[in-house]
Amino acid sequence: METVYLPQKVTPDPSRAFYVGLRLKPGLMHAAAERAMLPLIEQFAKETPNHFPSDHFQFHVVGLKDGIVRDHGGTLYLLFSAVALLLAIGCGNLSILLLARGASRQHELAVRSAVGASRLRIVRQLLTEALLLSLTGAAIGILLAYRALAIMVAWLGKYSFPHEAAIAIDLPVLAFSVAVALLTGILFGLWPSLRLSRPEVSQVMQASARKIAGAVRGRRTHSVLIGAQVALTLLLLAGAGAAMEGFLHLLDTPLGYDPHHVMSVGIPVHDGAFPNWAARKAYFEQLRDRASTVPGVTMAAISTNATPPSNGWQTGVEILGAAGRDEQKARVNFVSPGYFPLLRIPLAQGRVWDETENHNAARVAVINQAMARLYFPDGDALGHSLRIPDIKNEPPFNPAAAGADSSL
Asked: Is 85 exposed, middle or buried (0-12, 13-18, 19+ CB in 10 A)?
C-alpha cells in the first residue's frame, strides 16, 4: 500500500490543536530545550487555555524513541542479559579449548622459548591466534545478520510496521558488536596466553621423562579442563535459561483482553463533515452496521482509538466526594457497548451501558481494575461519580450530545 502526504490545512480556529515535531541541534540536551521552550509554552497556555490541562501541568521534551524504550526497556534488558550470558558461555568454552590446545603444544612452545623467544613474544602469538578466531566469528556474524535481516523482514506481517520505516542494520550497533568481539577475544584469550607462556624447557631436554610425566599430567589437565567446561556451561546456561524464561513470561503476560482475530480500522472524519453530535453518531453507527455484514466479520464495535494500553488519551480526573491527589490521571476512551464483548474483556462488577444509554450520552463509565485498585482501594467504586475537566463541547471538531458535560 502506497502513502500519500498532503499539505496540512491550518486554521485560526481556537478549538483545533496540532502536534508539532522539532529537530534539536546536535548536542542540545532535552533539559536545555525545555528551558528554552518553556516561556513559549506558557504563552500558548495563556492564549489558548482549552488546549492545555485545566490543572497545573509540566512541560517536558520527549524524544521519538523515549516512549518505545520506556515501554520495551525491560524486555530488551532481558534479551540483552540472555545474549550476554550466551556470549559468556561461548567465550568461556573457547578459552578452555585454547588452554587445552595450548597444553598439547607445550613441546612447540618450549622449543620456541629455548631458541630465544621471550614470554611477551609467545603471549603476542597466542593472543593473535585468539583475535583471529574472534574476528572470524564477528565476520560470520555480520554476514548472517545481513542475510537474516531480509528473511525476518519478509516474515513480518504486511501492515505490522509503518510503511515509511526503514529496517536496516544499524551501523553503531554493528560497530559495538565488532568491538565486543575484539574485547572478548583479548580478555578470554589473555588468560590461556599467560598460562601457556611459561613452558617447562627442561622437559624438552629430557625426552623420555617428559613423555611419561607429560602423559600423566596431560590426562589430569584434560580431565580438569573438561570438568571446568561442563560446570561453566551448565552455570551460564542456567542463567541464560532464566533470562529467556522471563522474556517468555513477558510474552505470555495477560493483556486483559483477547487481541486474536481482531482488526482495528481507522476511519477519518473530514473537517466540518458532521457539525453536530447526532449526525456524527449516525454516520459511525452506519459504518459499524455495514462492517458487521462483511463476510467473515462476527462482531463490530466503535472506539475512539484501538485497543489498550494505548487507546484513549491521558487526562486529569476528579473523584467527586474524595480528596484530590497530585497527578490524578487516567486514560479515557469513548466506546460502544460492543467494545467489551468484542475484545472479550470480562466485567468484574457493575454493568455496561446499553444502546439506548449510548444514544442519549448517559453519564456512566466503566473503569479497569488498575484504576479501581488505585482510587477505590476499599472496593467501593460502584456508585461513585467522577469528573473529567478536559471533556468539552467544541463543535465542529468535538461535538457533544445535548445535556452532556464532563461529570459522570
From this structure: buried
